[in-house]
Amino acid sequence: MKISVASDHAGFDLKEKVKQHLTSAGHEVFDRGCYEEASVDYPDYGVLASRDVADGIAERAVVVCGAGIGMSMVANKVRGVRCALCTSAKMAEMSRLHNDANALALGARYLDHDLALEILDTWLKTDYEGGRHQRRLDKMMKLSDY
């Protein structure tokens, strides 16, 4: 799978772990920054990974900042992106099953690396259920027109 990743300075270390984990699992990873722990503005990087999904360059994106909140907000500003901020594997599973989330936000200051990778793996392996959820997903995506 092609996956775009991005972080701010607070999420840099976790992003590097995510990148290594994805690469070792055979995924093609696009690193959209940041590239060091010097202070940066998360919107500058989150939008790059999110646009990769919207433009079809990547199938999914993983965005990381201190709490995950800012990156999730940025990602959800990009038309076609459905980003879920997940703090448990169950949330990751549900974000895929019911919402077909194509972007995952992680909060580096609130997740240890093992839990973050468990969340990531669950999110990657879970397929969208479709069915009754499609009607709701269609309604959600029409909200981009407002």
Describe the structure.
This protein is of the alpha/beta class. It has one domain: Ribose 5-phosphate Isomerase B, Chain: A, CATH 3.40.1400. It is 46% helix and 16% strand. The protein has six helices and five strands, in the order βαβαβαβαβαα. It has helices at residues 12-24, 42-54, 69-76, 89-97, 113-125, 132-142, and strands at 2-7, 28-31, 60-65, 83-85, 103-107. It has a five-stranded parallel sheet with strand order 2-1-3-5-4, sandwiched between helices. α4 (89-97) runs parallel beside α5 (113-125). The mean pLDDT is 96.
Structural domains: how many: 1
Strand content: 15-25%
Determine the CATH superfamily: Sugar-phosphate isomerase, RpiB/LacA/LacB
CATH class categorisation? Alpha Beta
Distance between the termini: 32 Å
Radius of gyration: 14 Å
Low-confidence stretches: none
Number of helices: 6
Quickly give the structural class: alpha/beta
Biggest sheet overview: 5 strands, parallel
Q: Portion of residues in helices?
A: 40-55%
Query: What do the pLDDT scores average to?
Result: 96
Q: What is the correct CATH architecture? A: 3-Layer(aba) Sandwich
What is the 3D form? globular
